[in-house]
Design a protein that fits this description.
106 residues; alpha+beta; Translation Initiation Factor IF3; four-stranded mixed β-sheet; 35% helix
Length: 106
């Protein structure tokens, strides 16, 4: 499945829009890693525990979006976007969405 942030796929023509597809997940780190992240806010630098959490969330939300597109028999998802929001301290929702389409080679 082709996944792009653009509104077209080079070399392909969009023949049908199948609708919006989305995938989301809410992730939180366990108390030990949350504690370590809190300590890092004092000394500065990258908070690797949260970086890791968001990478996992991004991958999971994209996989869920792809699954939804597959059920529509899509060839690609175009105009893909990510949105994140804090649900509670230490937990974030990550939403991935785009337009499922049928394509054909030009």
């Amino acid at each position: 499945m082709i996944i792009v942030t653009t509104d077209s796929v080079p070399g392909y023509e969009v023949t049908e829009a199948l609708g919006v597809v989305r995938g989301s997940t809410i992730r939180a780190k366990h108390i030990g890693k949350d504690f370590l992240a809190g300590l890092r806010t004092i000394v500065g630098g990258e908070i690797k525990e949260y970086t890791e959490m968001l990478i996992e969330a991004r991958n999971e939300s994209m996989n869920r979006m792809k699954t939804q597109a597959t059920t529509l028999d899509a060839d690609a998802v175009i105009s893909v976007r990510f949105v994140t929001s804090q649900v509670m301290s230490g937990a974030a929702e990550l939403l991935c969405y785009g337009t499922a389409v049928k394509t054909r080679a030009k």
